[in-house]
């Protein structure tokens, strides 16, 4: 998940979202960071999912821009915004 380690993932979720991502409630699908995130997103309400994904997107973009990297995913922002719109119930 991005460039996070287990420790930085835990810190990000605690500091940015006030969530303990290591809570056993988010271990249904396994212990990897990606599996915990998927489980978390499947269990929370759409508002929380949008806030979480937005925080992760902002982090991703800040890192990418600070390193001067070009976008490597075709239409990444458009895909992200489309997902957010679907979660928010927008067309």
Mean pLDDT: 91
- The helical percent reads 55-70%
Largest sheet: none
* Topology as a string of helices (H) and strands (E): HHHH
Q: Count of DSSP helices?
A: 4
Structural class, by secondary structure, is mainly alpha
Number of domains: 1
Distance between the termini: 28 Å
What sort of overall outline do the alpha carbons produce when their principal axes are compared?
A: globular
Please count the beta strands (DSSP E, at least 2 residues each): 0
Low-confidence stretches: none
The oligomerization state is single chain
What share of residues are in beta strands?
Answer: under 5%
Estimated radius of gyration: 14 Å
Protein architecture, described:
The protein is an all-alpha fold. It has one domain. Helices cover 62% and strands 0% of the residues. The protein has helices spanning 6-17, 33-43, 46-66, 76-87. The N and C termini lie far apart (28 Å).
